[in-house]
Amino acid sequence: MAEKKKSKEEQIDIENISIEDGFAKLNELLGLMESEDVGLEGSFDLYKQGVDLVKVLNSKLDTVEGKLTEVEEG
């Protein structure tokens, strides 16, 4: 039961997270997944959060890359 509570505490508002905070959160999720205290279900929840976060970060990085291209060409 503590596993579920921990997973809920770890959930974040990924749509509004900064790129820097997003990478820090990915590192934190990885550390939690490597922990022996997290069971299979907890690891799956952490993995899903990580995948969702990576998708958002990829989108944010694409936006930054587009802006940099505009600056370079402008």
Topology:
Layout: H1 2-10, H2 19-34, H3 40-73
Helix pairs in contact: 1-3, 2-3
How many DSSP helices?
3
Order of H and E elements: HHH
Rg of Cα set: 15 Å
The N- and C-terminal alpha carbons lie at a distance of 55 Å
Q: What are the main properties of this structure?
A:
74 residues, mainly alpha, elongated, 3 helices
Task: Describe this structure as you would to a colleague.
Helix content is 80%, strand content 0%. The protein is mainly α and 74 residues long. The chain has one domain. The longest helix is centred in the last third of the chain and has 34 residues, at 40-73.
Task: Summarize this structure briefly.
This protein is mostly helical. The chain is built from 3 helices and no strands. The chain has one domain.
